[in-house]
Design goal:
Layout lengths: L1 E5 L3 H13 L3 E5 L2 H6 L8 E5 L7 H9 L6 E6 L3 H8 L7 E3 L4 H5 L3
Parallel strand pairs: 1-2, 1-3, 3-4, 4-5
Length: about 110
Amino acid sequence: MIIHIVEDDLGVGDSLALLLDQIGHKSIIYPDAESFFEGKPPRQEDTVIVDLGLPGVSGMQLIRWLDSMKRPPKVIAITGQSSRAIADLFGTNIPAILLRKPLTEEALVAHL
């Protein structure tokens, strides 16, 4: 399993990759959705961690694309946005796994 991290904040992306490495997972960091699209598509057994606040192609658009795949990977959405902003963005279609920043190791590991 590869964990793809799509996060525009380099500090957050690096911290996530370091944490995942320490617990035995291979990860790849992408600074935006466009860079992610340039790479090899994720496999069904992979996990994609997506920041909802991405510049350019939004995290929400990326999640919709991933969900439309024939064999989609697991998706973990992360955000620092308020509950109200999340509700305004998604309405009733909130991603199945949505974690709020700052992330804790326990919260993240529980969903891997």
